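Tip: read the tokens left to right.
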């Protein structure tokens, strides 16, 4: 049945035979919907403009709830013969135009004048990427599946009355609850509309869908299919209507669904094959959406008694995913000493066959990181993994990504004395003229001061705007799932959970280390070139200095080669960043957390960074995550891991990731699986958090570049997500080919 329906589902959110930009994935429509079920997007926008005149003076949670309600009431819907999951037409966050967009401008134009220009300069310079972040939310899935939408609404109503009885129902608190109640009423009404529309359908799937909608309209899901439908509906409304990205499907998808799985098998509701069939339809929803960053879910973990949380459903999910041959959603697998080889080897085998959807997340290092900011052992043990591979306390932690700090800009600013030629402004510090940097110590101190300045600038700016996150975008849907927020009567995304934290990202770290080492070796130790002449070479983008450029590129003092001196500086500089960030108070009662992660900034910030002493040309990508600069790790994977260990991964208390590229010949057969396990476990025992594997050979990548039609399903792991090879630019493809050439 699924194979018959698959092509139709692939066209659910955008037409696969038409151009598609995954960064703007919600701006598209797929197959046509019944026009009698709702309005077109432009008609909804017109209605929202009229609604704004009625709601503009209301408290923001209430105004937002009415805007979301209007879109949910008027979007077209679908109950399709090819799908077990419902369809929504207007998924492009239409309500934002009269809520979040206006309130963002109000904050940055009126409340915080001048900050908008400063943030623009930070972003445009490539030194710091910064913006208010609403894209890393994990709701309390246990509450959602235990209570259902109607139960969440009822619980909010009960807490509102409790506050009223306790004389704590202020106008602000009342608005908080009213926003939740209005929005959840609209969600329940939408499900009722879907249910009534399903009653008009006679196709084979209609009866099952109708029964499902009837149950989840009025209460909690009763079987695994209904649980999956609730997860899907919550995700779609939160992501596409409420404007909060849901960055994990379940609190461990296999464990969140396992009780339903067991009950359904025990009571004969579904067979194991029935459930696999439903999983095919479920997983294809996210493949069809086509989010460039990938939609994550995690699996596994460890019970309090030390046993593994992997179960039969875990295996079934992997089997179905493998069979589908998709690359989205992406999967984080929790790894520990107790992880069954059956799981490990299944994952490793999928990776070496080109299924690069996996991030291997090492529980010991992650738990150590989480406990370092005050979480208990039990909280760390039951951590959520969200986004790319970030970890945090389940249902009691919010983390915003406040700034991506380009470490390599610190070196650039030493050479320019803090002046940024890209924006024509003094963004860095005036550390000293180059002629005053007489020793490497002088240079090194100047670099650290510039780096510290970027970190402090990020903290200063984020402290100003993070006070207004719930003003800009109240988290009505999310807050309803967090009981602590209901007890306090305040927005869960702002300050109502135990850990209201903010992450600062260390970007371009290996390029930064390589640049510092190049200056040390070629300017101060060997005296091959003066710092003024090196500055001239950088200003000319190495033109006319080709011999020097070649010498620097061939230097063994590169991060990733287990060079003792380079490792010492990598260790020191990694610790410097973590110490400047970790556990600093933020504006929401929480702390800042260091993270070794780059997202797409390794490309975007690289485009805005001039030539640097490590041998980079202006505009080339910078290193990503904890990984080496492209093509610079030439001593094999063990040397790479030894270098990464020196960064003390567990000191990055939000996340830390290493990308490892292996040659297919090194991991073939049963022995190859053992090799992958030994590499992962060696790193895990030394504090690792996350490892991502790519298994490539140069010949395959070059052939794929020349003959893309032969490699339509070839995947690569990019940063915290995987994409199809054919969706990468030629420049990005060339970077992978360069790394593959150096595999040993």
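Filled-in amino acids:
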């Amino acid at each position: 049945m699924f194979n018959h329906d698959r092509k139709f589902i692939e066209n659910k959110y955008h037409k696969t035979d038409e151009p598609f930009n995954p960064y703007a994935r919600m701006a598209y429509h797929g197959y046509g919907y019944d026009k009698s079920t709702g309005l077109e997007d432009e008609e909804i926008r017109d209605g929202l403009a009229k609604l704004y005149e009625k709601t503009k003076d209301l408290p923001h949670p209430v105004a937002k709830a009415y805007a979301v309600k209007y879109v949910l009431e008027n979007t077209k819907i679908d109950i399709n013969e090819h799908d077990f999951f419902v369809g929504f037409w207007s998924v492009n966050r239409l309500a934002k135009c009269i809520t979040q967009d206006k309130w963002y401008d109000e904050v940055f134009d009126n409340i915080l004048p001048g900050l908008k220009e400063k943030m623009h300069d930070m972003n445009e310079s490539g030194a710091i990427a910064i913006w208010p972040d609403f894209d890393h939310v994990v709701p309390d899935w246990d509450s959602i599946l235990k209570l259902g939408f109607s139960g969440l609404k009822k619980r909010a109503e009960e807490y509102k009355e409790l506050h009223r009885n306790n004389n704590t129902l202020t106008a602000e608190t009342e608005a908080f609850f009213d926003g939740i109640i209005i929005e959840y009423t609209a969600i329940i009404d939408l499900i009722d509309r879907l249910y009534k529309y399903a009653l008009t359908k006679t196709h084979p799937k209609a009866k099952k869908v109708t029964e499902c909608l009837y149950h989840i309209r009025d209460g909690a899901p009763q079987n695994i299919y209904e649980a999956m439908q609730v997860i899907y509906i919550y995700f779609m409304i939160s992501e596409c209507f409420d404007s909060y990205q849901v960055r994990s499907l379940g609190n461990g998808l296999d464990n969140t669904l396992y009780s339903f799985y067991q009950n359904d098998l025990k009571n004969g509701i579904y067979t194991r094959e029935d459930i696999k069939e439903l999983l095919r339809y479920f997983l294809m929803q996210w493949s069809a959406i086509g989010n460039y960053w990938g939609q994550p879910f995690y699996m596994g973990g460890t019970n309090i008694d030390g046993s593994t949380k992997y179960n039969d459903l875990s295996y079934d999910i992997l089997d179905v995913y493998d069979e589908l041959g998709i690359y989205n959603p992406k999967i984080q697998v929790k790894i520990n000493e107790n992880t069954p080889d059956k799981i490990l080897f299944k994952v490793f085998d999928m990776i070496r066959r080109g299924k690069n959807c996996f991030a291997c997340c090492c529980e010991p290092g992650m738990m150590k990181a989480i406990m370092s900011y005050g979480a208990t052992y039990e909280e760390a043990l039951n951590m959520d993994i969200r986004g790319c591979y970030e970890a945090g306390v389940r249902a009691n932690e919010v983390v915003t990504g406040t700034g991506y700090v380009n470490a390599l800009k610190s070196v650039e600013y030493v050479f320019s004395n803090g002046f940024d030629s890209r924006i024509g402004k003094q963004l860095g510090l005036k550390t000293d003229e180059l002629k005053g940097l007489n020793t490497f110590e002088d240079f090194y101190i100047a670099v650290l001061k510039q780096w510290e300045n970027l970190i402090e600038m990020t903290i200063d700016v984020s402290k100003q705007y993070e006070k207004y996150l719930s003003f800009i975008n109240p988290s009505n849907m999310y807050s309803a799932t967090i009981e602590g927020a209901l007890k306090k009567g305040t927005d869960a995304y702002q300050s109502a959970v135990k850990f209201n934290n903010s992450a600062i990202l260390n970007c371009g770290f290996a390029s930064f280390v390589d640049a510092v080492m190049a200056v040390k070796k070629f300017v101060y130790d060997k005296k091959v070139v003066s710092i003024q002449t090196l500055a001239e070479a950088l200003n000319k983008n190495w033109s006319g200095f080709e011999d020097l450029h070649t010498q620097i590129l061939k230097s063994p003092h590169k991060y990733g080669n287990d060079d003792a001196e380079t490792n010492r500086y990598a260790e020191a500089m990694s610790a410097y960043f973590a110490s400047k960030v970790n556990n600093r108070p933020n504006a929401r009662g929480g702390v800042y957390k260091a993270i070794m992660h780059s997202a797409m900034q390794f490309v975007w910030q690289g485009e805005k960074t001039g030539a640097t002493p490590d041998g980079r040309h202006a505009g080339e990508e910078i290193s990503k995550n904890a990984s080496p600069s492209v093509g610079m790790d030439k001593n094999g994977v063990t040397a790479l891991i030894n270098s990464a260990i020196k960064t003390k991964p567990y000191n990055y208390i939000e996340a830390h990731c290493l990308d490892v590229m292996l040659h297919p010949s090194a991991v073939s057969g049963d022995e190859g699986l053992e090799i992958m396990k030994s590499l992962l476990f060696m790193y895990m025992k030394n504090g690792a958090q996350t490892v991502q594997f790519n298994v490539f050979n140069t010949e395959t990548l070059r052939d794929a570049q020349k003959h893309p039609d032969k490699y339509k399903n070839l995947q690569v792991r990019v940063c915290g997500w995987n994409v199809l090879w054919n969706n990468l630019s030629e420049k990005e493809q060339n970077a992978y080919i360069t790394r593959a050439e150096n595999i040993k």
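The radius of gyration is 26 Å. The chain has a mean pLDDT of 96.
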